[in-house]
Fold each of these.
Amino acid sequence: MKSYLLNPHAQLFRFGNPIETESLSYSRDRLELQIEASLPLFEVDCKTDETVLRYKMNKGDRVLGLGEAMGGADKRGRYIEAYATDDPVHTPDKSALYGAHNYLFISGHSHCGIYLDFPGRISYDIGFTHPDEMIIIIDGVDFDLYFFQNETLLETVQAFRNLQGVGYAPPKWAFGNQQSRWSYDTRNKILEVADNMRKKWLPCDAIYLDIDYMEGYKNFTIDSTRFPDFEDMVKEMRTKGFRLIPIIDAGVKIEPGYEVYEEGIEKEYFCTNIKGEPYKAAVWPGWVHFPDFQKPQVRKWFGEKYKNLVDFGIEGFWNDMNEPSIFYTCEGLKKFIEKAKECERKNLDLKDYFELETLFETLSGSKEDYESMYQMLEGHRTSHHKIHNLYGFNMTRAAAEGLQDIGSNKRFLLFSRSSFTGMGRYAGLWTGDNHSWWEHILLMIYMMPSLNMGGFLYIGSDIGGFGGDASAALLIRWSQASLLTPLFRNHSALGTRNQEPYAFDDKTTDTMRKVLELRYALIPYIYSEYMKAALKKDLYFKLLSFEYDDDHSKEVEDQLLVGDSAMMAPVYRENDRGRYIWVPEEMLLWKTVMNHQDEFQVIRPGHHYMHLELEETALFIRKNKMIVLSEPAQNVDLMNFSYLTVLAFVDHYAEYHYYDDDGISMEYKDNEQQGMIFRIHQHENAYKISVDQKGNMDVKIINFMITNMQGEFTEIVYQVSDGSLQSKQPE
Amino acid sequence: MKSYLLNPHAQLFRFGNPIETESLSYSRDRLELQIEASLPLFEVDCKTDETVLRYKMNKGDRVLGLGEAMGGADKRGRYIEAYATDDPVHTPDKSALYGAHNYLFISGHSHCGIYLDFPGRISYDIGFTHPDEMIIIIDGVDFDLYFFQNETLLETVQAFRNLQGVGYAPPKWAFGNQQSRWSYDTRNKILEVADNMRKKWLPCDAIYLDIDYMEGYKNFTIDSTRFPDFEDMVKEMRTKGFRLIPIIDAGVKIEPGYEVYEEGIEKEYFCTNIKGEPYKAAVWPGWVHFPDFQKPQVRKWFGEKYKNLVDFGIEGFWNDMNEPSIFYTCEGLKKFIEKAKECERKNLDLKDYFELETLFETLSGSKEDYESMYQMLEGHRTSHHKIHNLYGFNMTRAAAEGLQDIGSNKRFLLFSRSSFTGMGRYAGLWTGDNHSWWEHILLMIYMMPSLNMGGFLYIGSDIGGFGGDASAALLIRWSQASLLTPLFRNHSALGTRNQEPYAFDDKTTDTMRKVLELRYALIPYIYSEYMKAALKKDLYFKLLSFEYDDDHSKEVEDQLLVGDSAMMAPVYRENDRGRYIWVPEEMLLWKTVMNHQDEFQVIRPGHHYMHLELEETALFIRKNKMIVLSEPAQNVDLMNFSYLTVLAFVDHYAEYHYYDDDGISMEYKDNEQQGMIFRIHQHENAYKISVDQKGNMDVKIINFMITNMQGEFTEIVYQVSDGSLQSKQPE
């Protein structure tokens, strides 16, 4: 083991000779070798083919992080595996989901964290077997361990965030409402969704194409029967104000004559079996091969294929099935069928039936299948199993790099199901195939800050739930809880009840309109906070304990700080008409009320029960903070960001950096200071407001709506001209 | 439709010619026929072969009841089916579980309720399809509908409870801690559990025998290899202070020479196919027949079989697999195997694979199987499907009636997995195969009051969860939440982690000991409240809204009133160190603290955050109420109920009926007044206490520990001699 000091708060411990995953992005020029450094706090046991880390947890220790995983924000008591898995039933005991997120932070009397840069399987027993012990087993001996330590929890996490590189920036329209379903599988169905949205005045920016838009589930093809003249359709949709977002799967259909298949075979671009023959498995198209995304030339090739759809006018994609998901292999299914026949011969014996059941249940995504698939790694044929967790990351990196070449200066919407740390530089992710369960609203709330720590910023869950049937109330509460998630997408599965915002009764449609309009009104704030988090390698979602020191803030997992100024505390239980909240300092509660004026209320520090009817949405503005709004419209393109409203809650002095840019070009990259600084000084009974501008901004009017600690409200309208600020009304 | 007035609060609406289920137990001698009565509030649509009931829900309406079902106490927004189902994965969207409980109560501006006495399938769409409409579909046209209405919610539910008959009374020892697992499958394993319990000073009254104690899963047999000299073993266990509780399954193994099978065939006691041949299905023993419990002579025959085990000294049973559970039938499995072969012929085609998957998933408990099974009903061969929901009820009735004959004046422990309204007269139930999920603690809390409404009183969930792996903290919190459930049993599945109270670390064992000792200390109160609820047809578990009128009490679903005097508000989320509580009036909080004196605190009305570490258990005593305790011991038989402690929280005057009896004989039946009445008058700064005694009681010393509204504590020790009361200390 070698040790390097990266900075006062980050050390690298290198075990053996690790595979370069490229998950982090920092300069390795000046790594300072440490003599005789040893890993703090963790006990290390290096075995022949695995490594065991042990950490003795103290009574007050909380264990945060691990990204996409079941359980609360604090993972103590859990057993979690990092092994990308396509499991569509997220019951509370599932140990592995789609992503592999090997970072965790221990928050107690002091704060520390680790990141394990290792592409194979890792298991985390966080006080599950022994209540006070964390046991991490790494399925190998070659890996990088990063150790972080700083004064506060936030600074400790930032020490990790700082190594992750600038985050992915989607186009601004990608913060609008997006409507999806498996499947709007004809041109007419898509048009119907679009028309319903507009007819019911439900703002919406994008409609999704799930697998059925393809011809035979072949990537980069269009089924011309169901989608005749696709290019024209994309144009028509753009005229109506919608983008179409097609899905791309990992597997390439085996079909002679299909270009992608033929090229992949010819150039040996596919993963193989041990003999070097292309590896075959069944997914949606039937038999497929999987591109070996570990090879740079394969990434380049696959990334360029997105051009087929970009040329039709497509501006966004979602990458799916890239764990990679395997329904079955020849070998697996044959073994199962043999067992079935045996079962018949043995007169349908119970023992055979149970064996049959086990065989069937393990047919999909079996470790054996991953072990028998091979990828090329630095010139060597390597079992896919050893680098399994990189697959979705590299597929999505291929897409991102391809799209950057295709679009030159243009941003694309891109997110993926499977992920590995580092993918946040290239794309977002969604939390996969959740269910229409109330419990999964809470799960989403738990996941958001955990994912942020790993640099995944453009994130969200399938609103309303993917599997199972949503009720109207579930959709409403889920939408309210997603009010500020960067990705705001309603998605549902084949065979489930329709759950578009207009699919229920009129009252539900009205409530959903109100939620969606609030979402759109908040886009200036959401975009500003998102972009700052991406550019400054900061967090967008934070647990209360990242900002507040009091004991109770450490406990709270169902309220989140969102950006610099807001706190959310959604209702997530069926039939509840309110919830308890912890308010660590004075906050301004903004509550929308159906058919009435919104309510604003100063909430004093402490525990409260907040009434919140199904039709009401709540948002909290922190003390000496402000949020920026503009008028909602039917889509983001139609919004006018020249006219802003600033909602501020001010005790003496508040300052806010409002970031904005053109929302579509790549020019944001070196310009994190872009935007305006709003400063509000409270002086006796008046406010002094100043605005500093940097970069090109087209803001004309700013309506400052200021509430003080006593709940007194002042409205000041300012006109911006030539970069300077003028009051519209006599001061 | 005919209508009868049963009493001012209960009407019977008879549709067609219903099957007599015997679910209710009230005198039908004086049914008063109502001329031109129509069903209030519900719209009825009688179709050819089904009946649809519609009810327009108002904004504030809550829909309570429906017994064993997923979701909160308020079922609004849910879709629920009454069709007994052996589904071992209770995800939030499951519509049917093991029991069929066709009662619901609508609580809004006014209160009403219905009970549908119908043995077939019923579906309840409670605002799922249309947020404000309840649609009930009865799979038939012959049924009894009972309609209840009264001033308060409690009185409305009591109008239903009053028709249900006196509840099942288990022996007193059945309120002790019970330890189960699938499976302690040898004599040595049972002894090891018993020894561990005693060695670690963990009170325990019973250890369970799951299916492996039988020879080849044959009911009423003992595997003599694994359990040599069973009678001696039962005796040895009794000497150690444990009862053994064997399982009995519904299916009878097809095995020539096996007495139960041979008799059943000879006497035509089994359910048949349409041709009248015994119906064959596979369950644990392999191929079985199902006794036709609809026939009185079959019930008598099966009930008598329990004597085989009672003769060994057995005093309690659990009836399982009585939905009845079917793993597969010949026809089903053959169809599946044919499909598998076809899949092979078609070169493992994806479409065939999905069909195969569906076939496999529907192999167990398919409606088709139930439709092709037949039972005799009033001399007619009737499809089991039509009376499906009565199966477990009648099996358990068979057992209860058999045991009453066998034991004459003795009570047996008896509970069942499947159930129908009315079974609460004969036995208890457990909530089936839950999981080691934190969410299932909350589910248990929701289910308890819902089950009570239907007269199921001896109830509990598998503490620690049946499926999946429990953590130490989960077991502790689940045990705390079950502190007052009549059935207190830790049970877990084959292949899961051991979860006995001693199976974790020493600290967990210590905490569990403390929880168990508290449980035992509370047995006088638990038993008193249980027996009064059974005898007076009252409720043991109640939602707060049954006793408190304020608006917020209507919202609360995660706190329960237990008996007359107590409220529970357990912590049920992982890593939480406290929870919010709503206290509608002053209550006394009793909190156990590890290694310290217990804490008592007067809680003022309102919302509070209650700190409660993992090691702490909380119990609330209501105003002007008291609970009765005695010293815990290693089992109930060893407890001394002559020495009692009364914990009272008194403002002016409190009165309590302490019920007690011999705990084992049937003589309780006509003696609901049995016991003592404690009266505490607060007079200026002193208390005047009086005790009235009725029936044989052996109470010698009562230690009154009284707290007043100011939190001031007074202890008064009384000696009872010759039925009169004397102070032990100078007044």
Note: The two ends of chain A are 67 Å apart (CA to CA).
Amino acid sequence: MPARKTRERILETSLALFNERGEPNVSTNHIAEELEISPGNLYYHFRSKEDIVEQLFAAHEMRLDEALTMPGERLPDLEDLWFQLHSVFECLWASRFLYRDLVDILSRHRRIRVRFGRLLRRARESVQRLLSGLALRGMVAASPREMEAATENVLLVTVFWLGYDAARRGQTEGASADLAAGVYQVMMLIAPLLAQPARNHLLALAAAYRR
Amino acid sequence: MPARKTRERILETSLALFNERGEPNVSTNHIAEELEISPGNLYYHFRSKEDIVEQLFAAHEMRLDEALTMPGERLPDLEDLWFQLHSVFECLWASRFLYRDLVDILSRHRRIRVRFGRLLRRARESVQRLLSGLALRGMVAASPREMEAATENVLLVTVFWLGYDAARRGQTEGASADLAAGVYQVMMLIAPLLAQPARNHLLALAAAYRR
């Protein structure tokens, strides 16, 4: 099997095992066993589990940065909000192991901690741009302090939705998640900040999304 | 040393070590070592680490239930909201190990998963009672769906504030946390749901709290 192919298979299998069992519960030996390769072969491609986690994080980061990209030429509107949230939640689900044990992973992996901090800052700027766009369209009826606090709450609810959903359902196997409910909760964070008729428009979009 | 005293010391030391290093990173051997007792002596008092975690959870649950108690004879008002949030965040900080690795702990400890589910339901009822009280006072200018979604977001932001604060600051040692910022974020979730003058009253309370 060509080396490039093995490297890719290691990443794919690691992602699947991390997502299924939680990153703290998966060792490089588990990964090699699942792939039916020797631990030595695995270490030929990756120095350590941290190395694998960092490669997976880099791929997640690229995908998420793409999802955070805003329309360049015009002001964002409520449909952009909906679409962006949907894409972001799909990204988080694909790399859910990162969010299941976020604080633990960040405490053990210094480089991922630094990168996650930067990713969070880019996400914050993206939310700010979106809310500013709605304000410039005259859709907002909230104070700057309310907008600022809402930006932070949007990030928090998005980052921890999967964990909250698992905890409230007492189902922690990572087998399924109510992504639509997460998108809905974030839309409902923003709705009360809007003036009519934008507020009712967003409430209608959110209700249709939840069905 | 009397047995009761040793039992209490084991619980106190376990709580301190869990909070400092994260529950997944502390074994019963670490706890016995820190207390300078034999593992056998520890197992005389507690069958397993799960047993210790469950006792600590029971104590946390009692404290939190007390913090969630509402004034019985009158409708809750904005000062009650402020006071209750403050008490709840103090509780969460005292048992922060539970929230740092919530999904992992719940996935490993079935009994705690069941008890946490019940605790979350009681907390939801408490938030609902509080928001209903504000509505009965004529302070609310939001739809039932907005109120319902806000209830869920209040729980999510409260449960995961400590994790979010650690992640955004890239500081994951559990040594300190911005509890005031957490209380502020929850107050700012509720402010946009209120009619004037209650909305400005809550914004002023929140701003004073943040200073």
Note: Chain A has two domains: 1-46, 50-210.
